[in-house]
Design brief:
By secondary structure, the protein is mainly beta. It has one helix and four strands. The protein has one domain (7-85): Medium-chain alcohol dehydrogenases, catalytic domain (Quinone Oxidoreductase, Chain A, domain 1, Alpha-Beta Complex), CATH 3.90.180. The chain has one helix at residues 52-57, and strands at residues 7-12, 25-30, 39-47, 77-85. A two-stranded antiparallel sheet has the order 1-2.
Length: 86
């Protein structure tokens, strides 16, 4: 695996009040894991931003469980395979 890959996560740092601010998130970095047996490693190319995400951040009752403080901000995206192990 090329050493240039970074494993970055945006963590929920605070529940937003009103408009979402940069301080509602914390950028976290970790080493990129090697894929295990039957796993695929993807490089994220595009991320979708959905209005429902604000509800998850505010811990509103919704069709999906809310985020806890410190959770990775989840979402949908498009990636390309950069490693796999069968």
């Amino acid at each position: 695996m090329p050493p240039s890959f970074h494993n970055q996560h945006y963590l929920l740092a605070a529940r937003p009040v009103g408009e979402i601010k940069a301080t509602d998130f914390k950028l976290s970095e970790a080493s990129t894991p090697e894929p295990g047996e039957g796993e695929v490693l993807l490089e994220t190319r595009y991320l979708a931003v959905d209005p429902a995400m604000k509800g998850w951040m505010e811990a509103r009752v919704d069709y999906v469980a809310p985020l806890n403080i410190g959770d990775v901000m989840r979402g949908n995206g498009v990636g390309r395979r950069c490693g796999f192990r069968i």
